[in-house]
Design brief:
By secondary structure, the protein is an alpha/beta fold. The chain has helices at 9-14, 44-57, 81-92, 126-132, 156-172, 255-268, 273-280, 284-293, 297-301, 312-316; strands spanning 22-24, 28-29, 33-38, 60-61, 64-65, 72-76, 104-107, 138-142, 176-182, 201-206, 217-226, 237-244, 247-254. The longest helix is centred in the middle third of the chain and has 17 residues, at 156-172. The relative contact order is 0.12.
Length: 317
């Protein structure tokens, strides 16, 4: 084992670190670790590919812009060549991006070992991944469930511990990492909470409380873990993906504004406060707050939060 470096406070205070390169400011930077999770069919892969294209082309994904063009490795454990090609083509048509650009490289199960892609939970594959990631800045693993496997008597903690050995080596090399993952039935990321501990960001994609299939790809983008950033940079969004003749178009607006507008429209057509709360899946006291004085910053920020609790809720319902 390599001897540990122990700093005095003075040494650490005086230590100079290189300026971070932001591949999607402030979400993706050298050494960052993000989890993007959702239930099946919401748009995880579309969102991950959108981030990859923006980072590789010094472009924009939703409200976040890339400051440094970077080299991406997209590890596809599920979709296969044809499906990934289709999703990439639709997004590439809508931005100025050269098809011969080699900034994005893709590993697909179709071309590896008869469909068996190397598992990141298998320690024997770690040197393989470290080698192919040498010239890459951003690594996207899509998705965790397809890229990990259990051995006899394994727990989810065991699978994560082995996977984390690879991820922390990549992070130590300054790689930015996105883990695409599934949500469980309760809405949280599927499996052990240990996965959440080292993450800089956790982003959940979910269907709006009011959703009709004819609306197509529409989801809420919500930050469920944030480290070191506040304010508009981590604003929750409502996102629409439209497929048009020129490819995929992304439209977004603040989720808080969407909720507030929805509440006022429902009130205008004669719905009661309780009916509105039930319809949008939000607490009654927040509906009353929006209608009485407009939603305050803390009201909107905590609408629908699983860890928000107020004693008045017992009295209101």
């Amino acid at each position: 084992m390599k001897p540990l470096k122990i700093y005095t406070f003075k040494e650490l205070y005086l230590k100079e670190f290189p300026e971070k390169k932001y591949y999607l400011n402030p979400l993706l930077f050298q050494g960052s670790l993000m989890m993007l999770y959702a239930s099946p069919g919401i748009g995880k892969t579309f969102a991950a590919l959108g981030m990859a294209i923006a980072a590789a082309s010094k472009g924009t994904f939703l409200k976040w812009r890339s400051e440094h063009e970077c080299r991406v490795l997209y590890v596809d454990g599920e979709m296969g060549d044809e499906a990934i090609k289709d999703r990439l083509e639709k997004q590439l048509m809508s931005i100025d991006f050269a098809y011969k650009n080699e900034n994005i490289k893709i590993i697909s199960p179709d071309e590896i070992n008869g469909g068996e892609i190397p598992q990141i939970s298998d320690v024997a594959t770690h040197n393989y991944y470290l080698e192919i990631c040498k010239d890459r800045d951003l690594i996207i693993f899509d998705n965790y469930g397809c890229l990990t496997s259990r051995q006899s008597r394994d727990s989810d903690d065991d699978v994560w511990e082995r996977s984390w050995k690879l991820l922390k080596k990549l992070r130590a090399q300054g790689k930015a990492i996105i883990i695409v993952h599934h949500a469980g039935k309760a809405g949280a990321q599927l499996g052990t909470s240990k996965k959440e501990q080292p993450l800089n960001w956790m982003i959940e994609l979910k269907r709006p409380a009011i959703y009709e299939p004819h609306q197509g790809a529409r989801f809420e983008l919500k930050f469920t873990k944030v480290r070191g950033v506040h304010g508009n940079d981590v604003e929750n969004l409502i996102v629409d993906i439209y497929e048009r003749d020129n490819g995929i178009n992304w439209e977004w607006k603040g989720l808080e504004n969407e909720i507030e507008q929805r509440i006022h429209k429902m009130k205008e057509v004669g719905m009661t406060d309780r009916q509105i709360a039930e319809e949008i899946g939000r607490p009654l006291f927040l509906v009353k707050s929006v209608l009485k004085k407009g939603a305050t910053e803390i009201d909107i920020k905590d609408i629908g939060s699983s860890n928000y609790y107020d004693e008045t809720e017992k009295e209101l319902f």
